[in-house]
Amino acid sequence: MNRVDGKVAIVTGGTQGLGKAIAMNLAKMGAKGIVTLGRNEQRGEEVANSIHQETGCETHFFKTELSDVNNCREAISFALKKFPQIDILVNAAGLTDRGNIVETSEELFDKMIGTNVKGPFFLIQDAVKDMIKKEVKGSIINIGSQAALTGQPFLASYSLSKGALATLTKNTAFALLNNNIRVNQLNIGWMASDGEHQIQTKFHGAPDNWLEDAAKEQPFKRLLGTEEVAKAVTFLASNDSGMMTGSVIDFDQSVVGGYPFSPPKPPTKMSL
User: Fold this and answer.
1) Looking at the whole model, is its pTM more than 0.85?
2) Strand-strand pairing, 58-63 and 182-188
3) Which of 61, 78, 122, 158 is catalytic?
4) For site-directed labelling of 268, which of 21, 50, 219, 243 has its Cα 20 to 30 A away?
5) List of domains in the chain
6) Neighbour-count burial for 261-272, b at 16+ CB within 10 Å, e otherwise
7) Is 185 exposed, middle or buried (0-12, 13-18, 19+ CB in 10 A)?
């Protein structure tokens, strides 16, 4: 089940956390080759080597700044020099810096859109061009967020970016129907990862043991794990997901629109 034998995959955000887990799981499930993309070259090379050593899958790292279109194009070209084709593209990288509608700067807005929308758009564009040329029935998986549906006030530009990514997912899936190239998205909820730990301690002043306290408040008494999300991505990449395309799937321990008594509201007024 969920095998991707002989497939070649590109995974963004592959230097840590979810991207690393996705790349590792694809390798364990039979991928022939993987190219991970990220900004930290040392960590990227270390992760690529560890995947190869543990699974035998040929794995390469390419340093990439997703907001740079030329760099994204170079990443696809790099992958095609290492392997004959691209079967799977996973856009797992994401910027989650905080900022509400009042305080978000133009710099943060542009950075958010560049990483979370612009990069995935042009990676998809060049990957799809090659898939069409070679008649590859590929699979593209975008990692979205429950914030795409509204999001917390302090995630203004982030929520916007993930909403745009969901529209990109559906638009691209429809455009590529007759090519049998599938495009799907996972809107994940609160997940325990390296990046989330940095966010909680940097932006929210959380103590180092914040995860233990946060888990106690959740229905399943834990946060999402990177490995379980990675398994869901592998399912979407594999033939087991059949003709599923254009799906934006909520993967969280909440039900959108459900509340115990009255609709939720922000805890305080917006202030300048």
Assistant:
1) yes
2) unpaired
3) 158
4) 219
5) 8-250 (3.40.50.720)
6) eeeeeeeeeeee
7) buried
